[in-house]
Amino acid sequence: MEANEKRNLVHQNAIHVETIRKEQRYQKIHTEFSLNPHRKLHVLPDKPMSRKPKEVIAKNSDFIDAFHKARQEPTKKYTMPQTESQEIGWVSDPLIPSNRHDRRFNFYRFRTDVTKHKESELRAPH
C-alpha cells in the first residue's frame, strides 16, 4: 500500500468515528446556568402591552416600611432640620395661598393690536 494512495470510504468513516469518540470523551456539557458576578445585571421591565400577570411579591412589612421611610423627604422624616443645609428651605409652605384670579401674582399673555400685528408679520412668509 502506497502512502499517496487514496483512502477508501470505510477508512474515512472509521477515522471520523474515532474523532467523534475522542471529542465526546473530553467534552463537558454545562447544564447549569450561572451569571457572571463581575458584570452588572440589567433587569428590563415587561413590555407595556404584555398580558403576562405580574409576579406576586411576598410582602415583608418591616422592609417595605423602612424602604418607604428612607425614600421620604427630610421634612416628613424629621421634625427639625438635621444639618445646617437643611435649614434653608425647611419651611417650604407658601406665605400666602395661591389664587389664580389675583392679577398681582399671575401675569397672563395679553394680545393687543401691536402684538397681533407683529405676530402676523413674523408668521408671514418672506
From TrEMBL:
Transmembrane residue ranges: none
Do the record's keywords include Cytoplasm? yes
Recorded GO cellular component terms are: ciliary base; cytoskeleton
- The principal location of this protein is other
Short name of any one Pfam family annotated for the protein? FAM183
Domain of life of the organism in this record? Answer: Eukaryota
Q: Which UniProt keywords apply?
A: Cell projection, Cytoplasm, Cytoskeleton
Q: Where in the cell is it found?
A: Cell projection, Cilium; Cytoplasm, Cytoskeleton
Homology family: Belongs to the CFAP144 family.
Name-wise, this protein is Family with sequence similarity 183 member A
Q: What is the lineage of its organism?
A: Eukaryota, Metazoa, Chordata, Craniata, Vertebrata
